[in-house]
Amino acid sequence: MPLPWTAQRPAFGFSDSPDTWLPLPACYGSCAADTQREPPDSTLHLYRHLLRLRRRFRLGAGDLRWARSSPAGVLHFTNGIVEVMANLGRRAGPASARRSAPGRLHWVTGRLPPDATVWFTR
User: Fold this and answer.
1) Which of 15, 66, 100, 113 gives 20 to 30 Å between its CA and that of 122?
2) Cβ–Cβ under 8 Å, residues 4 and 32
3) DSSP conformational letter for 3
4) CA gap 42, 50 in Å, rounded
């Protein structure tokens, strides 16, 4: 789906005509970038924050290293000083006790729930 830019324009800012090759439902207007500038908990603010973290921790620029062993269903790797554990399975999996990024003190001990991801800084 293309990112809607402006909620009140034809084709949400992609065209001057509402007749585009990829029509978007009217409900997508609430996801338009211009409607998400103000609310601090919007998806736009979340993505901007995540992009800042990506630059800060140089994600994608460092060496990606897979963990030597990880439980079934748990994706576990490091990239620079960031360690990521993502539970893609249907059951809770073991998680290490570490400090999670970005700079807040959260300890993960015991189990990582299904469909959950945690980032740690080392």
Assistant:
1) 113
2) yes
3) P
4) 12
Could you tell me which of 86, 85, 87 has the C-alpha nearest to residue 122?
Answer: 85
pLDDT at 28 over 90: no
Domains, the chain: 10-56 (no CATH), 64-121 (2.60.40)
- Distance, CA of 90 to CA of 27 (rounded, Å): 31
Rounded Cα gap, residues 46 and 64, in angstroms: 24
Cα gap 3→17, rounded to integer Å: 17
Mean pLDDT of 65-86: 88
Which residue type does 94 have? Answer: P
CA 1 vs CA 32, 54, 76, 121: distances in Å: 12, 23, 29, 33
Determine the number of helices (DSSP H) and then strands (DSSP E) in the chain: 1, 6
Please give the radius of gyration of the chain, using alpha carbons only, rounded to the nearest integer. Answer: 19
